[in-house]
Structures are given as C-alpha cells and as structure tokens.
Amino acid sequence: MSDNKSLLDIRKMRILQAIVDDYIMTASPVGSRTVSKRSDMGLSPATIRNEMSDLTELGFLEQPHTSAGRVPSEKAYRLYVNHIMDSAKLTDDEAEYIKRHLDTRVHEVGEVIRQTAKVLSDMTNYTSMVLVPQLSSMKVKRISLIPVSDGTAMAVVVTNTGVTKNAMIRIPESLSPEDIEKISKLITQKLDGHRLAEAIESVLPTIRAEIGEQADAVCGMLEDIERSMSETDVEVVGASNILDYPEYSDAAKARNFLAEIETGDYLQKVLTDSSDVEMTVRIGTENENPDMQDCSVVTVTYKAGGKNIGSMGVIGPTRMDYGKVVAVLKYMSRSLSDILSKLLK
Amino acid sequence: MSDNKSLLDIRKMRILQAIVDDYIMTASPVGSRTVSKRSDMGLSPATIRNEMSDLTELGFLEQPHTSAGRVPSEKAYRLYVNHIMDSAKLTDDEAEYIKRHLDTRVHEVGEVIRQTAKVLSDMTNYTSMVLVPQLSSMKVKRISLIPVSDGTAMAVVVTNTGVTKNAMIRIPESLSPEDIEKISKLITQKLDGHRLAEAIESVLPTIRAEIGEQADAVCGMLEDIERSMSETDVEVVGASNILDYPEYSDAAKARNFLAEIETGDYLQKVLTDSSDVEMTVRIGTENENPDMQDCSVVTVTYKAGGKNIGSMGVIGPTRMDYGKVVAVLKYMSRSLSDILSKLLK
DNA sequence: TGTTAGCACTCGAGGGTGTCGAGTGCTAAC
DNA sequence: GTTAGCACTCGACACCCTCGAGTGCTAACA
C-alpha cells in the first residue's frame, strides 16, 4: 500500500488531491477543466486529461460513463487518507464551538458521552457514535446488591474510576434482604481492586470457603453481573443526517443503512474492534457489513488516566470530508479524555 | 363531529370506506371505477361518481387534480376511525406471533418494554414507541444510595411494584460512606410506602428533626432524585420503517421526520399527554408538531395491577392501516399489562 | 520530450411533443 | 334514482432533439 506513494509523482498526487477535494464537496464527477482551473498548477485541461487517464489506468479514478468526469475510487480515498490529506486543523470557530458545547461541569459520565456524540454529529453533519466506557477493563471498587422483589435484585458496580453500571440479576428467593446486604459487602470486600472477570475466578474459592451453603447462588449472581457488565453500550446521534447526501437519496438504500444504524450491532462491533487502535478508517467495502459498503467509518480512541477506555467514530458517505472528520475526532478525543480524566479523578 | 354520521347515508359511508380502504393499501388516488368494482354494491361507476362528488363537497375527499381519483381527507380518516373502521380482529397467525415474541420469562421490566416496542414495530411495519413505566405514580419501597466518588453517588429507587430507576446525584464531599449508608436507610424508612413527590414534602420535616446538620444535604439529594425520577424514558423502534412509504420518498421530508423521532421530544410529549386516556388517535394536522403533520399517531395505555402505568403507540403515514394498528395496540396493551402485572406481582 | 490546441466523438440532462389511459362532470335516456 | 355516453382534463411515459460537459487522439509547438 505504501508503494502507492512512489508509484505516483508529485503532479499526479496533486491532481488526485484536487479531484478528491472537489468530489467531496460536490458529489458529482470531476472533469479536466475543473481541475485545471481549481488547482493552481497552471496546466491546461489537455495535460490534466493525460494525467487523469493514467490515474484511471492505475485504479485511482473511475469513469461512470465515457463522457462524464472522473470519480475517485476507494483506492484513491485510501491513498488520500494515508498520504495526501493534510490533517486539517480546526478553525478557531470550530474549536470554540466544541469548547462551548462540551459542558465540563457535567458530573455524570453518561451525560458527557451523550454530549460528545451530539457535538460530533453537529460538527460533521454525519452520524456519530461513542462507545460508553467499558467496565471490563477497570477495577471494581464496590458492588452493591439491592433487593427489588422476591427473586430479583439490582447489582450496581462502581469502578475505581467512578464509572458505574447496573444490572438486574436473579437471586434465590430464599435470600432475605439482610442476606443480600451481607453478600453485597462480602463480594465488595473480596473484589475490591480487582478486574471483574479475572477476580471472579480467583476469588470464588475464597467466597466458597467462607459461606458454604450460599456459595452457588453467589457464584451465579457474579456470573450474571459479569455477563451484563461485558455488554457494551453505544450512543448514536445524527442517523438522519445521512439523508442530506445524494448518495442516499434512494429510499431503499437509506432504509437499509438506517435499519443497520438502528440495531447498532455493526457500530458496536466496529467500535469495540477499534478500541485499542488510536485511529482507524474503514472505506467503503473495507466494511464487512454489506449495508455499509458505500459509506466510511472513522474511529478514534479516548483515554482516562492515560489508558484507553473507549472509542468513538463518525459514519458518512464514502465521499466524506476525511480531513475535517479526522481533525474533529482527534480534537474531541483529547477533549473527552481530558474531561473524563478529571471527572474520574 | 358525531353529526358526521347522520350527515352521511349508509351508501356514502360504504363508498367512503371503500375509498379509504383502497387508499390505505395503494397510496394512489382512487377512481370511481375501482370503487365500483371493489365494493360489491352493484353500482355503476357513474353513480359512484355522483356520490364521490357529494363526498368531495362535504370535505371527506380531495382531488389532487381534475382527472385523478379522489384521496381521503383528514376529516375522512377521522370519520373512518370514529365510526366506520371495524376494529379488525387480529388473525390467529398474528396473535400467535405476538405470543411467541413476547417472552414471558423475561424478568426485567426494561427488557419487556424493549421487546414490546420491537414486536409492535414488526407487526405493523410502522414506527413504535413505548413509554417506560413511570415511577412518579408509584410508591417507594426502597431508596439506596451508593457512593461512587467524592461528591457523587448513585441513587437507586425501587418501587412497590418492583420498577427501578437510578440517578447520579451530587452529595456533599464531607459525607463518608457510612454517613451515606445511614442516610440511605433513613430515607428508605421514611419514604417507604409513599409516593416520592408527595413524600418529600411531608417527610422532610421529620428528617430535618432527626438529623439536624445534614438535613439540607439530604433535602438537596431528594430533590435531585425526584427530578431525575420524573424524567420519562421512551423506547422507540422501527424509525426507518417510514422510508417504506411513498409519502416519505422526499429526502428532506424523511429527514425532518427522522430527526424529530431521534430527539424523541414530541413522542414523549404525546405519550405522557395520553397516558390516562385508554386510546388516542392523532391524525395529520391534529399533531401540533409541524414535522409530524402528515403522519398519524395512535396510542393506548397499559396497566399493572389495574392501574395505568404507561402508554405506547404507533406512528405512521396518515394513510395508515388504522384497523390493524388499533387491533394490534389493543392486543399488545392487554398482553403487556398481563406480563407486567405478573412481573411486578 | 513534455505540453497544448484542435477536433471529432460520447453521453447524460433537460426540454418539447405526442400518445395513452384513468378519471371526471354533464346530459340525456331508461 | 340510475346509468350509458361523451367530451374533456391531466399526469405518466416514451420519444426525439439539442446542449454542454467531458473525453481521447493527433499534430504542432517549445
């Protein structure tokens, strides 16, 4: 892939960039005349045509039909993202906008995540998604069990970073509220400072030793808790934005896209798969999901206390403004990381 | 409005019904020939035409242009819903489908609500919404406070019906976990069996008397809790279904509609406004929201233990299949009420 | 050798025209 | 009161034409 760069001389690169830039703005095929005028390289359309012909042969451009302009191929976007795109700086206005709308006084993680998704979508006018920080990687500080009715209780897990999550779990009907409180204290004490998944295995024997008879019940409860803790939540905003782009003016296509967004399965998969890579860009068919193969997904991670705890991303047409999206995402990643680091102490 | 019935003789009614039925299916203007054939009244198209002309004059039909068929007006839908529509029975298959997909073994309210919304949307192919049972009308059984970090705690409210809700609240930094536990027990004891809103007023003085110094803090906490308990959650499923209907083939229109659905504000308003009326139907411009004025919203309430605790509804084009929607909603209302009544004991 | 002007060619978009068919309203006859 | 007949309307659709943007090729130029 990095061969691409050496394959193309500077001029071809500049022409390709001009074409991609133009196509990103207009969504209609770009002709040699336009490139000649727009790119201040002082070349005539004829020359540009020759170069464009080469670029087409090399697979960077595609021709919808003989006498239309050229359209960038996925390969071109890939090259653009990897080598050409000058990771645009945000304008002062944009940075200002983000600052103003990410309310740092908010004291709840969920609220911060929602705000982040909103800002991300508003800034880019694409669909945004933010993975809610995942507990499984954090250390447990407290697990509280609250009796709800005979047979069910709510478990609230608090991590050392202050992120919380709760789950309804089934409990043996025989347990009294007092029993539950006892168990609650016991498991908090045993799990404190451990990661939930690994702690369960190492700690269970101890628990079993201490409270013989109810051990099985506790064991089941911990498994319930672990299961629901490992469920990931995604905050999605701006799904309807996709209808602003002509590539989705076909109702059936838009429908498939939106239905996929609505279930969230693919988004969740992308975000969790990308949650340890600082930045990923999936262009068109690089998405496994068929309904997503003419859009692109860009993700970045965010941290708290120097450690990756989640990721977020933007979904738009393949012809998205990669420069802006990357700039916004990087900036937002830093902002969110700062806020969370403070919030979670 | 009920005059309408007397205004129209039986034959006009039957013709109108035939037109509405046909238009609901096809979404294209209905001509006299079609009515003549479809409705087995043995009348020639010419006769039908005379009647249709009258119906147009009376405001029940509209003519897109001179030589198209007629389209039902909102007034016609209103009449249809109020008087004509035979509140269709579900087919056995449909009832079976609902039974199969509403898993009665699920033991968590939230999950039941999500399932309900899903089934509702799948059955009708419109957008569905279900209001999560509201706590404010229920009696508190327990309020647990769980320390999360200095300055914040999570409050979990459990009602006598077993519905739970939690909220992050701010607490004075000076409170130790032990203090919090004490307060937690105190307010549970004081509020047990009362409705949250009214209890706060009546109980606060007692609390104030018992724990002088921290009373203000507790007071603030209770207000925080009350505020977030009165927030209503709505589960929405099938927003993208609207793109299946030609009336939303215009991207801009679809966009507005979906954006409105996405914020959920209007849906929430409709559901809460309707949460004490067994069934409501809002047709077209009967919706206050401009973006919703060419769709209809039908809602029903659901109960637990004989008492209304929430509502749910379906949103679709004005030309929706009211008969089916009403039948499904009524059936689902009973099903959900049954499930919740058992679940919440 | 790289660049450019010129030119014939292609093809979609858009506008105009004509036909077709569904539908109407009116009138007169049953 | 119902119906057949008829002239009329109007959108949908197919067809044709023109226009313009764009191409590829060739030959001339620096």
Describe this structure as you would to a colleague:
Two copies of one chain form a homodimer. With 345 residues, the first copy, chain A, is α+β, with helices and mostly antiparallel strands. In chain A, 49% of the residues lie in helices and 18% in strands. The first copy, chain A, has 13 helices and ten strands. The first copy, chain A, has helices at 3-7, 10-26, 32-38, 45-57, 74-84, 92-101, 109-124, 177-191, 196-210, 215-229, 251-263, 265-273, 322-343; strands spanning 61-62, 71-72, 127-131, 140-149, 152-159, 164-170, 234-237, 279-282, 295-304, 307-317. In chain A, the strands form three sheets. Chain A has a five-stranded antiparallel β-sheet, sandwiched between helices. In chain A, strand 5 and strand 6 (164-170) form a beta hairpin. Chain A is elongated. Chain A binds chain B through residues 107-108, 110, 142, 144, 146-152, 154, 156, 158, 162, 164, 166, 168, 170, 237-240, 243-244, 248-249, 251-252, 254-255, 258-259, 261-262, 344-345, and chain B through 107-108, 110, 142, 144, 146-152, 154, 156, 158, 162, 164, 166, 168, 170, 237-240, 243-244, 248-249, 251-252, 254-255, 258-259, 262, 344-345. Chain B binds a DNA duplex (30 and 30 nucleotides) through helix 3 and helix 4.
Secondary structure: number of strands of chain A: 10
Topology pattern of chain A, helix = H, strand = E: HHHHEEHHHEEEEHHHEHHEEEH
Assembly status: homodimer
Number of alpha- plus pi-helical segments of chain A: 13
- Rg calc of chain A: 26 Å
Average pLDDT of chain A: 87
Structural class of chain A: alpha+beta
Distance between the termini of chain A: 42 Å
| Helical content class of chain A | 40-55%
The major beta sheet of chain A can be summarized as: 5 strands, antiparallel
Percent of residues in beta strands of chain A:
15-25%
- Which pair has the most extensive contact? A-B, 38 and 37 residues
Q: Tell the overall outline of chain A.
A: elongated
Strand order of the largest sheet of chain A: 7-3-10-9-8
Residue runs with pLDDT of under 50 for 5 or more positions of chain A: 1-5
